[in-house]
From TrEMBL:
Cellular component, GO, one term: Golgi membrane
Organism the protein comes from: Tetracentron sinense (Spur-leaf)
Binding positions (UDP-alpha-D-glucose): S379, K385, E386, D415, K607
Upper lineage: Eukaryota, Viridiplantae, Streptophyta, Embryophyta, Tracheophyta
Similarity-based family: Belongs to the glycosyltransferase 2 family. Plant cellulose synthase-like D subfamily.
Protein name: Cellulose synthase-like protein D3
Length: 1146
């Protein structure tokens, strides 16, 4: 066994502390064609990797006459490619107190894999006699041949030849292996090769060549501020670490120790163009809107004062309840309305983005993309409630996105550890081989195949290539076959497992008969395992749960489904064997990784937040994109340029202070009337735009582009210069920045840890306590911070990076890197760290998204709302009444948890703006409105039953106040519709469901939250089902399915009581000696107001349209009439005990 020691050079980061060394042991195994498992240790890779001076290995097996370690000089590029191909064909497993194993898979899925980047792709057969191995292939699928004679040899035989056959002699030509020429190693287009690393330097040390500057510590940037870039990332050679380029010494100096951008005259003369623009709402709309808000505030104050001073002495209890409710409603209206004072719109300029980052320039002669990398997270947990076909379509839309392929990485988190999800993702990776080039060739939108082929518009519009019709027909046929394979996976896995299980039982019975003297051996019972396509046990969750193979008890898994692409475009050709002609089409695919974190009994895995944090750590080690986009499994990329639009905000001037860019959620499959306000347009188009004018929108759980360094819990750059204001839109003004004479230690990083005092130094020795004991993870933090900085192409850009700094390709994956990623997704890694407390997604709430965004805003970060012309993402939403109520219940419960926690906005730091704090306060308070809303919904019925009203008489003053308040509310709604672009029907649907949710789910959420706070009872929720209804003929079949839930009891009661009260009120008034029509009209008006809001709820109770039994209406009418007559008979009008003249109640 061999273990690898990670010795990252930390001397430049801390002069007094040395990072602890972590040992990671990796075991490799391979299943041969005969069914036997062959284990490989890292010793087998020493001769290959040791010569590269990538790592130092400590071999624990002593040398013997049969085994002698040798070091042969071979081609490093070939060795690294072979290593990466081997990694992509291996399923890595491991966890707490277990060895990390790499299982070399002969095949990942039943069908053949054709794309060379995909796991399980096969090359030519090995030419060594008696070997059944396959030759490793490169990005084009061409064989990787280490010798100039082009003798075909597999990886295992190549290692044997290096170690055992005469010290590295080729079995074909019998000559020693030689290094290839530079031309064969990829020296193309005038691109320089990486520097030769110093002797004894490890791979991580070469990536992190952080060396202290030999110049004065008071170096200044073009802005006159301390230059973090040069201090932290200057190296002695031409290149820095990772994929950052640095110019030669002296290029950035002006002879006065002041750092300036290269060619300052060119930068000064060249007009600078912003990437984004803030579009203010027209004053003709916004000014009356603000005026109406203040006018209604005054009217509400006068109305409440009049109500308090004019009690109804005949029904003081009715008056008291109504006044209390009205005061609360006025308070919550203020909380909701004040943050809407400063709405803004924003626009991006993708042309400028392309000019700055992807156009040839003196710093980037070849025009290679200088955009930062993005890691995309897709989370799923249950393949039954989240169909694998939906997840697969989301993955395909990501792989086909319009973003530099080499800068994109997709991570799929399977929190259930299901083989069904694993093989569905492998099938998706295989289908991406033809789908992604097809999208690039014909500019397909959207790039989700299910949505694209179901488009109702003309698919041939604006298509000019003559072969489009033929290509589309072929791809459609392939997609239909792909869907059949996905839908057949559950049955295929079940049949395969049954067959292997029967074989294992027969083997066990034979073994039992051989070892037992008794010939009558009964059936031997062995655990029924789930088997992979290559005939090995699935390390995750089995279909029949067993110890260490259940949903809450399985090892951590990582499979590189698609290995990292080459840094150069890979053009296709007109091969007749291909499905379509891919000439001049880039056929590369982004990195795709399947991740299932380790789960063990006794550990709190923290649901989705824990899964996202595991992805943050694993991605930091494998790709370390400075930005993270998280998507739910049912939210796909509808606009292929969405990530570019989000990157415009991050890369613009001041973008380094933006923690995330939130995109609006758009939904498909919603009924045309949007009965239950599933589109939620009032929130996404009104509230979120308004918050964008303050400190930024809240994080809503999906469709959000994060800055990785903000997730790590650091403060924004220049946090001392930016003081919180009341409202930057309405009352612009900023305190002057304090002049800092000398740079503080935290400025050397350009970032500070949140939750620490202003004067506390950034002690690097504390980082393992915050982030865990992974040196890889800790060392990746400054890399992500630097790569996420805006471009320093203008003197006004602070904390920028040099142009062309991100054009060097990333390092190839090796087994030790993936093994380290396995260790950071183990169940124990977060113990005694700040993950979930101050770092990553925050734990302790079912709405971890809102809390995570709140923590960032509380540290002074800003967020941005990006509304694109074409929807950025689209997803699904529950259209069934029961599912919708449960969804609202989960959101409201999270808000109650926030209110009773230290994340309450009342405890926010001074860095959060006042109106932003009010908005977060409203998030925590709105569920408590349910108490007052329920009482107010019963007040009309109580008024009709008692014959009293909330006021003594309907005088002119009361009616005038009521009219003013109602009219101003309607006018505000009209103006909101004007500046937000929503429709009046959407606003009304939102009002209706506000009352439906307030009288059902919100009350249950408050009760559950109180139980958790008082009694410590934990709250558990089930996943919202993303599967469609069973009725294939009706797209909205789910809308009419009635599923009973206790949340419906209260709204049903409110409807029945108000209906009965209306009937009782009419009967009482008609047969009264002195009819009180004013009291009747007041009560009936408010009862109809309640019933109008509950109308969608009533339709949901009736089930499918046109199928409501007539008896339901008959019995409802009879019951209402009977109860009304009984009430009038029991409590007749005063002075009259007769109803209807001669008729008398018995």
């Amino acid at each position: 066994m061999a273990s690898k020691s990670f010795k990252a050079n930390r001397s430049s980061l801390s002069a007094t502390t040395e990072a602890p060394k972590s040992q990671q042991t990796v075991t490799f195994c391979r299943r041969t064609s005969s069914g036997r498992y062959v284990s490989y240790s890292r010793d087998d890779l020493d001769s290959e990797l040791g010569i590269l001076e990538i790592m130092n290995y400590t071999v624990e097996i002593p040398p013997t006459p049969e085994y002698q370690s040798v070091e042969i000089s071979t081609d490093p590029s070939i060795s690294q490619k072979v290593e990466e191909q081997y990694v992509s064909n291996s399923l890595f497993t491991g966890g707490f107190n277990s060895i990390t194993r790499a299982h070399l898979m002969d095949k990942v899925i039943e069908s053949e894999t054709s794309h060379p980047q995909m796991a399980g792709s096969k090359g030519s057969s090995c030419a060594i006699p008696g070997c059944d191995g396959k030759v490793m292939s490169d990005e084009r699928g061409m064989d990787i041949l280490p010798c100039e004679c082009d003798f075909k040899i597999c990886r295992e035989c190549y290692l044997d030849a290096i170690k055992n056959i005469g010290g590295g002699i080729c079995p074909g030509c019998k000559d020693p292996y030689k290094a290839r020429d530079l031309d064969e190693m990829g020296l193309e287009n005038g691109r320089p090769l990486p520097l030769t690393p110093p002797g004894g330097m490890s791979r991580m040390e070469r990536r992190l060549s952080l060396m202290k500057s030999t110049k004065s510590g008071l170096m200044r940037s073009q802005t006159g501020d301390f230059d973090h870039n040069r201090w932290l990332f200057e190296t002695k050679g031409t290149y820095g670490y990772g994929n950052a380029i640095w110019p030669k010494d002296g290029e950035f100096t002006n002879g006065k120790d002041d750092w300036v951008a290269a060619e300052p005259s060119e930068l000064i003369n060249k007009p600078w163009r912003p990437l984004t623009r803030k579009l203010k709402i027209p004053a003709a709309i916004l000014s009356p809107y603000r005026l109406l808000i203040f006018f209604r505030m005054v009217a509400l104050g006068l109305f409440l004062a009049w109500r308090i001073n004019h009690p109804n002495n005949d029904a003081i209890w009715l008056w008291g309840m109504s006044v209390v409710c009205e005061v609360w409603f006025a308070f919550t209206w203020l909380l909701d309305q004040l943050p809407k004072l400063c709405p803004v719109n924003r626009s991006t300029d993708l042309t400028v983005l392309k000019d700055k980052f992807e156009t040839p320039s003196p710093h980037n002669p070849t025009g290679i993309s200088d955009l930062p990398g993005i890691d995309i997270f897709v989370s799923t947990a249950d393949p039954e409630k989240e169909p694998p076909l939906v997840t697969a379509n989301t993955i395909l839309s990501i792989l086909a996105a319009d973003y530099p392929v080499e800068k994109l990485a997709c991570y799929v988190s399977d929190d259930g550890g299901a083989l069904l999800t694993f093989e569905a993702m492998a099938e998706a990776a295989s289908f991406a081989n033809i789908w992604v080039p097809f999208c690039r060739k014909h500019d397909i939108e959207p790039r989700n195949p299910e949505s694209y082929f179901n488009l109702k518009r003309d698919p041939y519009k604006n298509k000019v290539r003559t072969d489009f019709v033929k290509d589309r027909r072929r791809i459609k046929r392939e997609y239909d076959e792909f869907k059949v394979r996905i839908n057949g996976l559950p049955d295929s896995i079940r049949r395969r497992s049954d067959a292997y299980h029967a074989r294992e039982e027969i083997k066990a019975m034979k073994l039992e008969k051989q070892t037992s003297s008794d010939e009558s051996v009964e059936n031997v019972k062995i655990p029924k395992a789930t088997w992979m396509a290559d005939g090995a046990h699935w390390p995750g969750t089995w279909m029949v749960p067993a110890p260490e193979h259940s949903r809450g008890d399985h090892a951590g898994l990582i499979q590189v489904m698609l290995k990292p692409p080459s840094d150069e475009p890979l053009q296709g050709n007109a091969d007749d064997t291909k499905l379509i002609d891919l000439t001049d089409v880039d056929i590369r695919l982004p990195l795709l990784v399947y991740v299932s974190r380790e789960k063990r009994p006794g550990y709190d895995h923290n649901k989705k937040a824990g899964a996202m944090n595991a992805l943050v750590r694993a991605s930091a080690i494998m790709s370390n994109g400075p930005f993270i986009l998280n998507l739910d499994c049912d939210h796909y990329i509808y606009n292929s340029e969405a990530m570019r639009e989000g990157m415009c905000f991050m890369m613009d001037r001041g973008g380094d202070r933006i923690c995330y860019v939130q995109f609006p959620q758009r939904f498909e499959g919603i009924d045309p009337s949007d009965r239950y306000a599933n589109h939620n347009t009032v929130f996404f188009d009104v509230n979120m735009r308004a918050l964008d004018g303050l400190q930024g929108p809240v994080y809503v759980g999906t469709g959000c582009l994060f800055r990785r360094i903000a997730l790590y819990g650091f403060d924004p750059p220049r946090s001392k210069e930016h003081q919180p204001g009341f409202c930057s839109c309405c009352f612009s003004g900023r305190r002057p920045a304090k002049v800092v004479s000398t740079p503080t230690p935290d400025e050397n990083w350009g970032i500070r840890m949140g939750g620490h005092s202003e004067d506390e130094d950034l002690n690097l020795s504390l980082l393992p306590k915050k982030f865990g004991n992974s040196n890889f993870l800790i060392d990746s933090i400054p890399i992500a911070e630097f790569q996420g900085r805006p471009l320093a192409d203008h003197p006004a850009v602070k904390n920028g990076r040099p142009p062309g700094a991100l054009t060097i390709p990333r390092d190839l994956l090796d087994a030790s890197t993936v093994a380290e990623a396995i260790s950071v997704i183990s169940c124990w890694y977060e113990d005694k760290t700040e993950w979930g407390q101050r770092v990553g997604w925050i734990y302790g709430s079912v709405t971890e998204d809102v809390v995570t965004g709140y923590r960032m805003h509380n540290r002074g970060w800003k967020s941005v709302y990006c509304v694109t012309k074409r929807d950025a993402f689209r997803g699904t939403a529950p259209i069934n009444l029961t599912d919708r109520l449960h969804q609202v219940l989960r959101w409201a419960t999270g808000s109650v948890e926030i209110f009773f926690s230290h994340n309450n906005a009342l405890l926010a730091s001074p860095r959060m703006k006042l109106l932003q704090r009010i908005a977060y306060l409203n998030v925590g308070i709105y569920p408590f409105t349910s108490f007052f809303l329920i009482v107010y919904c019963f007040l009309p019925a109580l008024s009709l039953f008692s014959g009293q009203f909330i006021v003594q008489t309907l005088n002119v003053t009361f009616l005038a106040y009521l009219l003013i308040i109602t009219v101003t509310l309607c006018m505000l709604a009209v103006l909101e519709i004007k500046w937000s672009g929503i429709e009046l029907e959407e606003w009304w649907r939102n009002e209706q469901f506000w009352l439906i949710g307030g009288t059902s789910a919100h009350l249950a959420a408050v009760l559950q939250g109180l139980l958790k706070v008082i009694a410590g009872i934990e709250i558990s929720f089930t996943l919202t089902s993303k599967s469609a209804g069973d009725d294939v003929d009706d797209e909205f079949a789910d809308l009419y399915i009635f599923k009973w839930t206790s949340l419906m009891i209260l709204p049903i009661t409110i409807m029945m009581i108000n209906l009965i009260a209306i009937a009782v009120g009419f009967c009482r008034t008609i047969y009264s000696v002195i009819p009180q029509w004013s009291r009747l009209l007041g009560g009936v008006f408010f009862s109809f107001w309640v019933l109008a809001h509950l109308y969608p709820f009533a339709k949901g109770l009736m089930g499918r349209r046109g199928r409501t039994p007539t008896i339901v209406f008959v019995w409802s009418g009879l019951i209402a009439i009977t109860i009304s007559l009984l009430w009038v008979g029991i409590n007749p009008p005063s002075g009259n005990n007769q109803i209807g003249g001669s008729f008398q109640f018995p």
